[in-house]
Amino acid sequence: MLEDLETILVTEQEIQERVEVLGQEISEAYADVDEITVIAIINGALLFTADLIRHISIPVRFDCMRVSSYREDTKPVQEPEIIDMLRLNLEDQHVLIIDDILDTGHTCARVIDAIKRLKPATVRFGALLEKEGRREVDVVSDFTGFSIPDQFVVGYGLDFAERYRQLPCIGVLKPELQNPPSWI
Ligand code: IMP
Ligand code: MG
Question: How far apart are CA 181 and CA 184, in angstroms?
Fold first, then answer.
């Protein structure tokens, strides 16, 4: 599968090192609380969150939310839809939302809005990747792995048509593979 990439933007080793440091940063940021609730936005944040929570030293409660940003025609929709909501009670909890990538910010804004209705004590957001110059809504990431240029990337949880999530690195697909007719 690696041969399908035109370039590798972040190597497996760079990811693993950064994720460990991020885990430490998160543990320090929450040093004065007893417990945090980590919410992974699936499917994209699955691999990242699985690795990240193993580097968080304070107790973690864990749940997932499924958010759809795309209609059938693969064009992003302005208002992402929450397809599967979490089950945990978040009242008075310290919530850390984790996504794979902060792009336009619509997904992040939608999820934060939904979480805040559940009356948590605090809400913060972290993402493995952040695309430069793409924000359409005013959201910021409290914990970010890497800033990348505005290119469509796959790997380490990020997909193209549900493929390539298994790659251990982050890369840009070869242009001829970005729209294979058989995948649409
Ligand atoms: P936003 O709502 O525009 O911030 O987009 C966030 C979501 O879009 C992410 O959770 C990803 O699922 C998806 N996304 C944005 N850019 C990429 C990319 O380069 N590769 C794969 N998925 C992406
Ligand atoms: Mg996603």
Answer: 6
> Atom 12 (ligand 1): residue with closest C-alpha?
44
Is 103 annotated as catalytic?
Answer: yes
Q: How far apart are the first and last CA of the chain?
A: 19
pLDDT in tens, 60-70: 999 999 998 76
Spatial distance between the Cα atoms of 113 and 101, rounded to a whole number of angstroms: 18
| Distance between CA atoms of residues 61 and 33, nearest Å | 13
CB atoms closer than 10 angstroms to residue 141: 20
What is the Cα–Cα distance from 19 to 24, expressed in whole angstroms? Answer: 9
Mutate which of 78, 103, 110 to test ligand 1's pocket (most atoms within 8 Å of Cβ)?
103
Atom 5 of ligand 1, residue of closest alpha carbon: 103
- Model pLDDT for residues 98-133, shown as the tens digit of each residue: 999 999 999 999 999 999 999 999 999 999 999 989
This prediction has a pTM of 0.93
Give the C-alpha separation, 102 to 93, whole Å.
23
Question: pLDDT tens digits, residue range 142-161?
Answer: 999 999 999 999 999 999 99
Instruction: Tokens for 138, please give them.
Output: 């005013």
